[in-house]
Design brief:
Radius of gyration: 36 Å
Mean pLDDT: 86
Number of strands: 21
Largest sheet: 4 strands, antiparallel
Low-confidence stretches: 1-36
Shape: extended
Helix content: 40-55%
Oligomer: single chain
Structural class: alpha+beta
């Protein structure tokens, strides 16, 4: 007690000092800064991905989708757009760094020339162009000199600078993927050089499992040497309860009542096309006559109706409809349809409330116990980072995002998917790495057996038939038939009667005609071959139009490969900081 009393004075001074510091920090608004979290969506080598840029790009995708389809994107479609936008912005920021590394810059002098020079930038032509194609330079200079337009000119200059940098990068990329005349000629020769061949194949599958012994040490060695095949991203094992958004019988009955209101007006309408369009039909109007047997079964009631008559409300899948017979000619007729999707708004609201209630009670009483008490079915699933398809749920980036924010044994908030709400609990999280042998033993054993099977067959045919001088001798000794294939192209991958065998095709065009070659190790069998005919392509047959076609195709191939490799290399080299999850939690 005495020690405590003796220490009271220093402790009080420490507390006073600490509170003073707190008040000072509060005055500087430091806590607001700390609570604000990250100021951007992420960073790529220190270059920020601003939320405004992200949102603008995302809005472009969603608006384009809505314009093209007439419907807003679903929850999962929007999630796909969000991931696409993020990846695009990451690549763009990485490319900015690459352009700086390569010295691809745009000088101030180039910007001045792009605005005032003889060949102005398209932006300047768009803003100051005359109908005759000339530039209104007087107006251009007048606006440049006005102080109130300076902020606008900064934006214009930034856009011109970015466009010019992109042009320079494209020129650099084009110079890297130039297709030479030799490449064109080689492609023509490989495509048009053909061969015919006779062969005998010894399928590896002829070796039975009983002839192959596999040891644990061999499995461990193969697993170790091929570890990259078994790498996996972070994986979640979880259980979930679903709450369907599907329309109920009550929803359907309500939709039938709602559309029945239009029946009399539809019957009296003199302009059926306008009527169904103004009442927002989901079935486009068509006044064309169709054969009676081509009428959809859902609308077959129209076959026995009078012209101008409107059917009772019908159910077609997830829609309700009214059908009006509009014409008849012989064995053909025409009809108009007013249809509406069966709305499940009330069901969705009720199910969302059910999901919220389940989640709250599951947190209190336990996930499994609450599901059992309420009679809900618990399903199990596994999800892997970067693989949006989740068994049982379909493609669901929304679920993956939710899992990223959860720890083991944690119950999620209510997650809304396109067709349901779910509440899940994480049972296990497996971090990224190589899957252990015990998990992939069967896969590894199959691979080792396949490799041993190939080795054993190659050794067997080499011992038994290497002394044979012809295919006929091998056929007689092995009691196998000689097969033939013709029209095999040098750049082909398959052989008729043998399947995919690119290595054997390479051997065919490296073998002298009429010479026995083998045994050759193929994908699916060991081969002995004899090239019976070879027709070499003649470059004299390469026309200018064919040359241009090949150049275009090879350029596209090289561009795609170059771009994929560049993007992959950039993403591996740059440091990416992703703040999206933190922003969602703020």
């Amino acid at each position: 007690m005495e020690k405590m009393r003796g220490a009271t004075g220093p402790v009080l001074w420490v507390l006073v000092f600490a509170f003073g510091i707190l008040f000072m920090l509060q005055d500087t608004d430091v806590f607001s800064v700390l609570q604000a979290g990250p100021r951007s969506m992420g960073e790529v080598d220190g270059r920020p991905i601003m939320q405004n840029d992200y949102n603008q790009r995302l809005n472009q995708f969603t608006e384009n989708y809505t314009r093209q389809t007439g419907n807003p994107p679903s929850i999962e479609q929007r999630a796909n757009f969000e991931e696409l936008v993020w990846n695009q912005l990451v690549v763009e920021r990485a490319l900015e760094g690459e352009m700086e590394r390569l010295g691809i810059n745009v000088t101030d002098r180039e910007i001045v020339q792009a605005i005032l020079g003889d060949n102005p930038d398209p932006i300047i032509r768009q803003l100051f162009g005359r109908p005759d194609g000339s530039i209104d330079r007087a107006t251009l200079r007048a606006l440049i000199d006005q102080p109130e337009t300076q902020s606008d000119w900064i934006l214009i200059e930034d856009q011109i600078r970015e466009n010019r940098r992109q042009q320079k990068l494209n020129q650099f990329m084009q110079s890297s993927i130039m297709v030479t005349n030799r490449e064109i000629e080689q492609d023509f020769l490989r495509t048009n050089t053909t061969a015919s061949v006779s062969f005998i194949r010894f399928p590896y599958s002829d070796i039975s499992d009983s002839e192959i012994q596999v040891s644990d040490s061999e499995l461990r060695a193969w697993h170790r040497e091929n570890a990259k095949q078994f790498e996996r991203e972070r994986t979640w094992n979880f259980r979930y309860v679903s709450f369907s958004k599907a329309a109920t019988a009550d929803d359907t009955a309500r939709a039938l009542q709602d559309i029945a209101i239009f029946r009399n007006d539809f019957a009296s309408s003199t302009n059926d096309s306008m009527f169904v369009e103004m009442n927002f039909t989901t079935t486009p109007y068509s006044g064309s006559l169709v054969e009676r047997d081509e009428v959809p079964s859902a609308f077959s009631v129209v076959l026995d109706m009078e012209i101008g008559e409107v059917s009772e409300p019908l159910i077609r899948g997830n829609e309700v409809a009214l059908v009006k017979k509009t014409g008849s000619e012989g064995n053909r007729l025409s009809f108009a349809v007013l249809s509406r999707v069966i709305a499940a708004d009330r069901t969705i609201t009720r199910q969302q409330n059910n999901a919220e209630d389940f989640r709250e009670f599951a947190r209190l009483d336990g996930f499994e116990r609450e599901a059992e008490q309420q009679g809900y079915t618990i399903s199990e699933a596994t999800a892997t980072k970067g693989a949006p398809f989740v068994p049982g749920l379909g493609e669901s980036r929304v679920t993956l995002r939710a899992l990223e924010r959860l720890s083991r044994n944690q119950i999620s908030p209510v997650i809304e998917l396109d067709d349901r709400f779910i509440v899940l609990i994480v049972d296990r999280i497996t971090e990224a790495g190589v899957r252990p042998l015990d998990e992939v033993r069967q896969q590894v054993e199959n691979a080792v057996r396949a490799e041993k099977r190939r080795d054993l067959m190659m050794q067997r045919v080499r011992d038994q038939y290497s002394g044979a001088g012809s295919l006929d001798a091998i056929a007689e000794q092995s009691q196998r038939n000689i097969q033939t294939a013709s029209g095999i192209r040098m750049n082909g991958t398959t052989i008729s009667g043998a399947g995919r065998e690119p290595g054997i095709i390479g051997a065919i065009f490296g073998t002298q005609p009429e010479a026995l070659a083998g045994p050759l190790r193929g994908e699916n069998a060991a081969f002995f071959i004899v090239v019976t005919e070879r027709e070499d392509a003649d470059l004299a047959d390469l026309t200018s139009s064919e040359r241009d076609r090949i150049r275009t195709r090879l350029t596209q191939q090289k561009t795609r490969t170059f771009t994929e490799q560049l993007v992959e290399r950039l993403q591996e080299q740059v440091r990416i900081k992703d703040f999206r999850q933190q922003l969602m939690m703020l």
